[in-house]
Amino acid sequence: MNELESRVRGTVHIVGAGLLGASVGLGLRERGVDVTLEDLSPTAVALAADYGAGRIREAGDPEPSVVVVATPPDVVADAVERALAEFPDAVVTDVASVKLAPYLELVRRGAPLKNYVGSHPMAGRERGGAIMARADLFTARPWVICRDRDTPAEALSLVEAIALDLGGVLTEMTPEEHDRSVGLVSHLPQVVSSLLAARLVSAEEQAIALAGAGLRDTTRIAASDPELWVQILGANREPVVALLEQFSADVAAFTAALRDADAPGAKRRVADLLAAGGRGVGRIPGKHGSSERFITITVLIDDTPGELGRLLTELGELGINMEDLRLEHSPGAQIGFAEIAVLPEAAERAVADLTERGWRTL
């Protein structure tokens, strides 16, 4: 199969022209798929069309083979029900980040679900809208498929074809399994990040000026859209509340041990909780889903045009395989830090080779 040849046949209709919907459209259009767009906002759908995510659907267009619902979570059930009625021969999927609540609502309404397959690509950005859409947004990201036991094989294969076309890695779960899982790896981190970042609102400027990579890492997603997250958290509140209660218990235990740090066993309790965090991080998949751990080398670079490009070029010339890259700037100084993750066995050689070429490493 040609790299850009699509597995999808027929027209794909996208309901919702925001970040996810427009990104689906951009990715499918790159593979030559006919994509039509629909959104309650004329401006949003026109903008997505202008960016090349598809064409605005018109009366008289043929029925699509697949409908992708990419609306906010609180109207997903409405949009899916409407699509099933309007396009009875099409397969309908949605990309909402909560799966159980929309499914149960559709069942309650008695909607015909034979051609409905819920799905969820684990991808996104802090800011939404078609202007932030990317054709490669889903590349190498898990794409969860929540099939029903009565789902026809052909319906399932069409949804899988879209996920594969967009570079997703297929994973099958029940709606309950999906919601518990995203509650842990997505929804709880959002709440914790937002609450931590909220502590900065009243902080003194001299404290904020000391912020480094640790604070940036733990608060990055706090810039996400609050209105969208109110919907997501409300729809998945039971798993998230349970997780928050467990997290709160850990915070309380940590606080109690630290408050009386000289009490017998207190230091061990603090150490055990911190060590548990390290074990948890060790379970997060690395590059390509592997469990490999990397060593980070920090390279000092002048904060001038072209320096980062020169560093990346020389890494390639030295045959150093960079697994990850993060950049940090030093406040008030014309210098930056490039944190390069490499495999442990390559770290010593990388430091030596870069130093020999005049780079400063930490």
Automatic annotation (TrEMBL):
GO MF annotation: an example: prephenate dehydrogenase (NADP+) activity
The protein's Enzyme Commission number: 1.3.1.12
Superkingdom field: Bacteria
Pathway entry: Amino-acid biosynthesis; L-tyrosine biosynthesis; (4-hydroxyphenyl)pyruvate from prephenate (NAD(+) route): step 1/1
Keywords: Amino-acid biosynthesis, Aromatic amino acid biosynthesis, NAD, Oxidoreductase, Tyrosine biosynthesis
Catalytic activity, reaction form: prephenate + NAD(+) = 3-(4-hydroxyphenyl)pyruvate + CO2 + NADH
A Pfam family this chain is assigned to: PDH_N
Keyword Acetylation: no
UniProt KW Amino-acid biosynthesis keyword: yes
Residue ranges constituting the ACT domain according to the UniProt record: 296-362
GO BP annotations, alphabetical order: tyrosine biosynthetic process
Prephenate/arogenate dehydrogenase domain ranges (all copies): 10-288
The protein's enzyme class: oxidoreductase
PANTHER family: PREPHENATE DEHYDROGENASE, PREPHENATE DEHYDROGENASE [NADP(+)]
Family statement: Belongs to the prephenate/arogenate dehydrogenase family.
NCBIfam families attached to this UniProt entry: PRK06545.2-3 (NF005111), PRK06545.2-4 (NF005112)
This protein's name: Prephenate dehydrogenase
UniProt source species: Leucobacter komagatae
